[in-house]
Specification:
Number of helices: 10
Bound molecules: zinc ion
Mean pLDDT: 94
Number of domains: 2
CATH topology of the largest domain: Quinone Oxidoreductase, Chain A, domain 1
CATH architecture of the largest domain: Alpha-Beta Complex
Number of strands: 17
Length: about 325
């Protein structure tokens, strides 16, 4: 099959890559559309030491092995858990130590004609959600995860750092909970997408104001340091950024101000799907361009450009 393959020496298109062979309980899914996210760009720079087919944001059609799901349009939870350890028993399969993660760890991903996932990971889509919307469900679920981890109320002031792909989704999701929300970014064009939805934006952080919750969606090594300077004492920082390589910083501020630091990764699909179906979140304006798989390297370059929004791949 056609696939974009990440090897030690970089990313390249292959026309004859072996198609995945679904294990027991897994379905084969034909990919219709896949999205490039910051994690993929970091993987290409060596994050997680991943080799194989990257890609974890997708919409596809079940080709075989889906039992009742064959022929259905689906998205998928990307963490493939063992189902029998203590984490799995507690419903925390996303943290199963034996897990593989689609296109990130131990399992080929969505930048290919086909992928394999456990049937129980698949979520069927209502007709009302288009492919270009559905491909945002995985990152939108990651945005919804913040509301699972932190009880944000209408009175809480929230600052979103970063106007990248995830930042724009996080701002829209958290704006459903609080009106006291500010999104900080570097790109007036991206911030305008939020302003159109009534969300306050700025290109520089306020000099004196401090926030109850600061969400780091910068994707940059210094994002946490910036967040630490903007959170109020006893406030919370939600960290969404993963970067290839080390970062050094002085953590004393966290102790002195008794700040809660919350790492946040994948999230629940159900609230994400509901937000999309009810038109509460806009994703259509977040698409920059759709590339064929053959032009995957160009697509990655495009996704790396500072002003780029979501770049999609169509096998
Ligand atoms: Zn992602
Ligand atoms: Zn497990």
């Amino acid at each position: 099959m056609k696939a974009l393959v990440l090897k030690k020496d970089g990313l390249r298109f292959e026309a004859g890559y072996p198609a995945p062979e679904p294990a027991d309980g897994e379905a084969l899914v034909r990919v219709r559309l896949a999205g490039i996210c910051a994690t993929d760009l970091e993987l290409a720079r060596g994050y997680m030491g991943f080799t194989g087919v990257p890609g974890h944001e997708f919409v596809g059609v079940v080709e075989s092995g889906g039992e009742g799901l064959d022929g259905r349009r689906v998205v998928g939870e990307i963490n493939c858990a063992c189902g029998s350890c203590e984490y799995c028993g507690a419903g925390l399969g996303r943290h199963c130590p034996e897990r593989s993660v689609l296109g990130i760890m131990g399992r080929d991903g969505a930048f290919a004609e086909y992928l394999a996932l456990p049937r129980e990971n698949l979520r069927t889509l209502p007709d009302g959600i288009s492919d270009t919307e559905a491909v945002f469900l995985e990152p939108l679920a990651a945005a919804c995860e913040i509301l699972e981890q932190l009880d944000i109320g209408a009175e809480d002031s929230v600052l979103i750092l970063g106007d990248g792909r995830l930042g724009l989704l996080v701002a829209q999701v958290l704006a459903l909970r609080t009106t006291s929300l500010l999104a900080i970014g570097r790109h007036p064009g991206k911030l305008a997408l939020l302003a159109r939805r009534g969300i306050a934006t700025a290109t520089v952080a306020p000099a004196r104001e401090r926030f109850d919750v600061v969400v780091d969606c910068t994707g940059a090594a210094d994002g946490l340091e910036k967040a630490m300077a903007l959170v109020r004492p006893r406030g919370a920082i939600v960290l969404k950024t993963t970067v290839a390589g080390d970062r050094r910083l002085d953590l004393n501020r966290l102790v002195i101000d008794e700040v809660t630091l919350i790492g946040s990764r994948c999230g629940p699909f159900e609230p994400a799907m509901e937000a999309l179906a009810r038109g509460m979140v806009d994703t259509e304006t977040l698409v920059s361009m759709i590339y064929p798989l053959e032009e995957g390297a160009e697509a990655f370059d495009h996704a790396r450009e500072p002003g780029a929004l979501k770049v999609l791949l169509k096998p």
